[in-house]
Amino acid sequence: MDPLHEERLAELLGALPTAPAAWVQAAKELPRARRQLDEIVELARADAEFRVQLMADLESALASAGYEPGTALIEAVRARLPELR
Amino acid sequence: MTIEVSDAQLVERCRAGDAEAWNELVDRFSRYVYAIAVRAFRLPEHDAEDVFQDVFARTFERLDSLRDDSAIRPWLAQLTRNACVDRLRAGSREQPVEEPLTDGLDSQIEQLDEALDVHEGLRTLSGDCREILDRFFAQDESYRTIGEALDLPAGTVASRISRCLGKLRDHLEGRKPPSAASSGM
User: Fold this and answer.
1) What ipTM describes this predicted complex?
2) Residues of B in contact with A6 (CB under 8 A)
3) What's the gap in Å between the CA of A57 and the closest CA on chain B?
4) Sign (positive/negative) of CA torsion A67, A73, A74, A77?
């Protein structure tokens, strides 16, 4: 790196804006969300009754099983379990 | 005292399922991914959000395929570029644009790499220095806003910014060992 004049340094500090906090938070929650999704899929494949509940009312079935049925989770479950579409 | 964790160490810990390491990885590279999308490719916010989430999802899924853990940054840059190009192509199918890709992309990403080096240098400074420089330069807050937030007179804000900038410059130019974190402001 060339000798850094303060003006150049200031320019570089300003070149990386902060990403929106909600995006960063969502990215941080990815591992937990993936684990949760894997659990739901595994349960749906192993438990016929749960699968029937999911097909009848996905949102309520997820809530009853203790999951927060947000849009992202619902879409992800539908994508992993095409029979629910 | 800030304990420096290298990119390679961070990747290794993420691969082992360390949740804190994943949070740190997202914090460390979120600005970089965001800047490539909105500054280099000039994606609108809603497209940039999709790219941002897609890049971190792919990173999480494919971390095992990274051959050199220390190369996480160029790997992320490439993932982000590919995701942005895909997004632009998808958009141009729906609404054709004259110039689907921006000119001078390589030099812009090179500049963002340099900016990330500078931001990584910030990690060697005290928390107070990091905060004041980030507020002023990255978040574009005025002396007055910073002064109100940190309960400091505007003149003190200005002098601290100058002092912290000097410390950062010294560190980046290698004039001093990275010990500023333990010496406060």
Assistant:
1) 0.80
2) 162, 165-166, 169
3) 27
4) negative
